[in-house]
Amino acid sequence: MPHPSCLTLARRRFIGGAATLVACLAFAGTADAASVEERPDLRAVFDEQGVRGTFVLYDVTTERITVVNGERANRRYAPASTFKIANSLIALETGAVADETEVVPYGGKPQPVEAWERDMNMREAIKVSNVPVYQEIARRIGLERMRAMIDRLDYGNREIGAVVDRFWLDGPLAISALEQARFVARLARGDLPVSARSQFIVRDILRLEQEGDAVLYGKTGWLAGTEPSIGWWTGWVDRDGKIYAFALNIDMPSVEDAPKRIAIGRSLLARLGVL
Fold first, then answer.
1. Which member of 5, 81, 129, 176 is catalytic?
2. Residue 183 lies in a domain
3. Is the preceding peptide bond at 172 cis, omega within 30 degrees of 0?
4. What pTM value is reported for the model?
């Protein structure tokens, strides 16, 4: 991943109000420069919802990246529950969980979300973003294996500290929207350095819906340990065999802002002709 100043230093060409950047962004492990188009006009989608944020769309076929608020797109935040994507891959790859149907205990303690107060498998747990179930999975993986796998996956800043069941919620793990888009694009294509089986299962449990010839995959996240809270949505659209990976994060001053993650993401995907 390039230095955060990469977008700022890139050469810009302004076309119809959009800034096209030829930037030093390397995706999917290649050294090729990716064409990045900054779309300041699409900030209006965030303005309409009364929030600040960023959005990245990576067209894997054309190696073209569209960015709304490029400076923020390079800024790293703790991934919160979007890390369940990587956690699921690591659980399968290490054998901490046999498959997506193995029931994992939540621990029996009261939870802030009633839906989390039940033992469940990964397919169920990722749908309701069950934190205690995924914390148990992380404890099974253990610090040493978790650190090694995050390094192998080249996930964000690769830093997990010393607390195996909190590092994606409190830090030090952090990732940018550009890095999220790169990561899920590799998962969508089966290009991550883990087994094809693990990637197939995780893609399957991330599938949200199909609309015509477009299939939508994704995972939300809610980083509550900051002021304001940060909301995430990352995933991809598979349309006619073409992959469009995306990542969005927004400031969420109140709980009422949570639904705006998907509302803004869907609006941008529609305006960009993906959904």
1. 81
2. no
3. yes
4. 0.90
